[in-house]
Specification:
Blueprint: H1 7-34, H2 41-66, H3 71-94, H4 96-116, H5 132-172, H6 178-211, H7 217-239, H8 246-254
Helix pairs in contact: 1-2, 1-5, 2-3, 3-5, 4-5
């Protein structure tokens, strides 16, 4: 049986997987905002990378809970994914205008091909003046790409840092250290001792209730009647018979020294 994965490696995997899942979902949503339905190179590439990011995020969560099997392969594919995501974002910083022109040209060619059913319109570039709607579409694409590239650049940098930390933890601290194992054992012993103490208190409380029940009205009268019979028996042995006749009782009590 292999040694248990260290807490640092588990948490680094969880953080890396969480960031990867956020980027994957974001890429898929971003592609549909840029072009719906996605058909050109950039939106399709975003969907492919987003789907891979989600798959690797699930694999990373599995590794953080179940062990280090094939962890090196997972980290290798995560490196490739990070490079691909970073390449797309860098291309948007380097050639934003060309990307916008390509997307808008593809959209115009599709619209004109649908209207005129002419295959030559599919290769049409932005040679003619743009209409008002096309200008608005161009501005919208430019705004979406400008905002998206900065947002995803931040997340990709965070993913890269988490990936480096995970690789370091994989190499340097893959197993539970003696101090972590001692802390876990001490915490388990403390919890067990507390549970046993609570169980002992409950047991003592139940035994006390069982051995010394609270006095009831019936028990009180029974004890009083028993004491009465005992006293009258001793008094009758010393001073004579004692009956329930009031006259005899008065005479009997008068026979006791000191009774008036």
């Amino acid at each position: 049986m292999g040694q248990e994965t260290s807490k640092g490696l588990k948490w680094s995997l969880r953080i890396l997987s969480s960031i990867s899942a956020v980027i994957g979902i974001g890429f898929i949503i971003w592609s549909t905002i840029i072009q719906s339905p996605p058909k050109s190179a950039l939106p399709v590439g975003l969907i492919v990378l987003g789907a891979l990011a989600l798959v690797l995020a699930l694999v990373g969560l599995f590794h953080s809970m179940c062990g280090r099997c094939c962890l090196s392969i997972f980290l290798f594919f995560m490196c490739l994914l990070t490079v691909g995501e970073l390449a797309i974002i860098i291309s948007l910083f380097a050639n934003l205008d060309g990307t916008v022109e390509s997307l808008l040209s593809y959209q115009i060619s599709q619209e004109e091909a649908a209207k005129e059913d002419n295959k030559k319109n599919k290769d049409r570039r932005l040679l003619a003046p743009l209409t008002a709607d096309q200008v608005a579409e161009q501005e919208s694409l430019t705004s979406n790409l400008e905002i998206g590239r900065y947002v995803f650049l931040v997340f990709i940098i965070l993913q890269f840092i988490a990936l480096l930390v995970t690789i370091v933890m994989r190499v340097k601290f893959p197993h539970v250290t003696e101090s972590e194992d001692f802390e876990e054992q001490r915490g388990a012993r403390s919890a067990m001792a507390q549970i046993q103490m609570e169980s002992l208190k409950n047991s003592v409380s139940r035994n006390k209730q069982a051995t010394s029940p609270a006095p009831s009205e019936g028990n009180f009268y029974a004890a009083s009647n028993k004491m009465y019979k005992s006293v009258t028996k001793r008094m009758s042995q010393k001073y004579g018979e004692f009956t329930q006749d009031p006259a005899f009782q008065k005479k009997w009590w008068q026979g006791i020294p000191g009774f008036k």
